[in-house]
Amino acid sequence: MAAEAHLGWLLGRGATFGHIKQLHAHLLTTGLFRRSPPLRTAFLELCALSPFGDITHALAAFRSTPHPATTTNDWNAVLRGIAAGPDPSGALALFARMFSLSPPRPDALTLSFALRATSRSSALPAVFQLHALTLRFGLVADNRLVTTLLDAYAKCSAPEAALQVFDEMPLRDVATWNALLAGLALGPHPHTALALFHRMVSSSLPDRETPNEITVVAAASACAQLGSPRDATAIHDFARRRGLDADVRVRNALVDAYAKCGALDRALDVFRSTGSKTLVSWNAALLALAMHGRGALALRLFETEMLRSTVAPDAVTYLAVLCGCVHAGLVEDGLRIFYSMRGVRPMAKHYGAVVDLLGRAGRLSEARDLVDAMPMAPDAVLWQTLLGAARTHGDVALAEQAARKLAEMGSKGCGDYVLLSNVYAAKARWGDVGRIRDTMQGNDVRKVPGFSYTEVDGAVHRFLNGDTEHEQWRKIYRTLEEVEARIRALGHVPETAHVLHDIEEEDKERALYQHSEKLAMAFGIAATPARAPIQVIKNLRICGDCHAAAKLISRAYGRVITVRDRARFHRFEGGECSCGDYW
DNA sequence: GCAACTCTTC
């Protein structure tokens, strides 16, 4: 049959959207679109799912299918297309229409596609509804469907619900474990994810539940978030023992995990020994170098190796190289890379990196010009970058302009106000400082709580600013007082301009001394042997005063202190930081 | 006949 042959050709060879429209016209004029359900479904799948198809066209074609449908096939084809497409949120309305029209009644596949769509658009209430339907339709014995459900809960930040589904499943397989593990790994509980991994590893599970490559990838990503080098090594050893370390995705995940745990050398070892490197391999290695402030190495890897390999750079690659330049202060190199981008259209993030690069170097008017020249509207992050640069270099007008833009965009971030206030405080414009404080009080400004943690003997100790939750808090504060005295003796002067609140100078100093990263460092000093290295992980950027203090602490106590903040690593040793104070 | 879990950015 001509249409079948044509369809086969399209599926086998690939084609353009024009071919699809021709095929559609052919099916309509011959009447096959109505007469041949299999051909029609195959056409809808092609149109909804293939890279050269178009979901809008698929939906239009779907609207002319005969009603009521005798099978779920056509519904499933378009739902699947929407779920996999750029805007999965529309799937729910389609599902609701199917549900109200029934027949056909949604089946396991319908629910599966709908769940995929809802998890991709983070619609938790819809996941609950689809869960209820799974129960009502008696489909709980379908393992793949229930794994999809579990995955949807996990991806919609409902780990308790995911865990409950997991516990109630009579029969699990490795994908079930992986879905739970991956879900926990991307949330705020990487520690729970690693505990689950250890449970998998230490219990003798049946064959269908044996950890596989995906398990290792998920565990490594949890480890990357947590930042514990001991766990990274344990996961790597496990992968080697089970022969899972030949997989390039496992190696990429290990590169990322080692780097984020502070073990740059081991990350690079894994990268170097990876045989057929993929784009992700290169990107992970470049990001690792950028994160560790090794911008010159990142540049060399990119220009003399990656560009000569068979792998073409993408947007992430350029972002990684640019970030490397930002963290190392390589202004000219960064500009050169930015203006030589090929095959990738610069996105807001690339502009952001270059604005950051120029701004930190004090080239504020060039940064401003670049913002004006951007083809897209500057986002909030970009204005925050400019505001930060204006603060560093004391440019009141630019700071005010950036702050105004942020206010127009409805910024509720505490940091934005603090930065502007810092600019005024540095110029002794106390009236303006007070005005900002009033605005903050009137505007329901949200403060992202800063926290830090450090690991001692495999146990994680977490601190908030001014925290007294830790069982040894009295001892920690006593150590902190001693630390304070010793670094003052070395000339430390608290930078109280970083504190916004209208409190007495002495209280400001106390507020600074109780920053979570200082508590974590003090705990490290109190809880580990003399001269042992200390590693601290912070969820926000390290503050200027803590940075200055950490340098002196490393000297006063003869310790190597590593701080991983939101953006990069700082390695303090002998009174200096690896970032060279350029961050 | 159509389905599940995975790596690089925040």
From TrEMBL:
Pfam families: DYW_deaminase (PF14432), E_motif (PF20431), PPR (PF01535). Gene3D superfamilies: Tetratricopeptide repeat domain. The keyword Calcium does not apply. One of its GO terms (biological process) is RNA modification. PPR repeats lie at residues 142-176, 278-313. It comes from the Eukaryota. Keywords: Repeat. The keyword Coiled coil does not apply. Residues 491-583 form the DYW domain. GO terms for molecular function: RNA binding; zinc ion binding. This is DYW domain-containing protein. It comes from Ensete ventricosum (Abyssinian banana).
